[in-house]
Design goal:
The protein is of the alpha+beta class. It has one domain: Cytochrome p450 (Orthogonal Bundle), CATH 1.10.630.10. It has 18 helices and 12 strands. The strands form 5 sheets. A 4-stranded mixed β-sheet has the order 3-4-8-5. A two-stranded antiparallel ribbon has the order 1-2. A hairpin with a 5-residue loop joins β3 and β4. The longest helix is centred in the middle third of the chain and has 32 residues. It is globular.
Amino acid sequence: MFKSSKIFYNRLVCVDLVSNVKRRVSVKSHRCDVRSFEEIPGPRSYPIIGTLHKYAPFIGDYDVETLDKNAWLNYRRYGSLVRETPGVRVLHVYDPDDIETVFRQDHRFPARRSHIAMYHYRMKKPDVYNTGGLLSTNGQEWWRLRSTFQKNFTSPKSVKSHVESTDTVIREFINWIKETNISHNQDFLPFLNRLNLEVIGIVAFNERFQSFSPDEQGPSSRSSKTIDAAFGSNCGIMKLDKGFMWKIFQTPVYKRLADSQTYLEKVSTDILYNRIHYFKEPDDDDISLLGSFLKQPNLDLKDIIGMMVDILMAAIDTTAYTTSFALYHIGRNPEVQQKMFEEISTLLPTKDSKITPDTLAKATYVRACIKESLRLNPVSVGIGRLTQKEFVLRGYLIPEGTVIVTQNFVASRMPQYVKDPLIFKPERWIRDSEGYENIHPFLSLPFGFGPRSCIARRLAEQNIGIFLMRLIREFNVTWMGEDLGIKTLLINKPDKPVSLSLTSRFL
């Protein structure tokens, strides 16, 4: 009698779980197969501090600025699903099939837990901002911004309209390199930061920062301070996301974020108000993003200011770092560079040949080089999501409110997913080539996925493509530095100087 009652009770428990969490549960040997989140392997968690001790100086073996190494350690210790609780519930996901499952759960308005301190800062300034901006806002307000702004960023016609102005700026930069006689002893990254400020200035705002002029080379110039403010806005985001003391008093990291945001606001406001002052009516000849924003009746000036600050934050460092890694791989693989040059010299018979949207469309090998570089060195270690419903992943119940981090950087370097994963082989992306691989579509996601993917992806790829075509057409590039790793400051920054030897081509 007692044994029968116990069996009946176990079955009732399973039925109750089904009704409470609305998931499918199988009953085997009188128990439920779905396991709790706490049963997922991961580092030991303590009351209050969770797993924050792993990141503590001296006693912890994780570093917030080397998330790639942390992720690799986690994978080796715990497997393809890893649980952490550094103040919040976190799940690291490595297998591309599991990554796909995660993204298939996306809500209509995918959410992230990111840029929390920036959101806090902006919401305290209602005279400047309506929202926290695209990077930190969630829900319907995020979708209002995204759906309003994205057509200006993503439509092919809009993106192609910026090819000529981008090429003009890049050709000026190439000439500046030749006149300045850049040495491999100089870090090339600061030059790329200035270049990308100039490109985004003309594309986004129809504004020239003149960042390569003698007057703008000093640390107190507008261009230098804008580049520093963009970095200052980005570099502390992850530390602030993990911390809480900045909510009590203004920590040095939070102060740098706030000061940087304030300066970017000033630059954006000056540009915007000058445009409004000089043009009472929208200028039909202005094809910049700002020009298109001003023609939209459902945007007010505070929305536009927020977007301008987000553009300056997101466009300078990310594109410069991505280009640096591409040059690193190209400069270390002369056979790849030769194939690039052969394709480029066919499309650009002379150094003065014009680059058009059609030229870029035919640059198949150049685009493959960019994709391969982004596989090995994506913009970030992975993609974040904040779950808005519970679901089952590999037999574990993932609760609502879990922060999921897809570990694409590490997964893209694993031999079970890519052949010879550490070799730079652009052919693996070119269909009908001998080296083509059918890579899992959720393995390499450098620009994110779905409606929350990078809004400026097409512009970024176009800008990098034009730059590589011009540089390789003009110079033979040789990497002169050490092996290049990453420093994870929200976005992946080169951890050593970008040391390049540029030798002029005479063809």
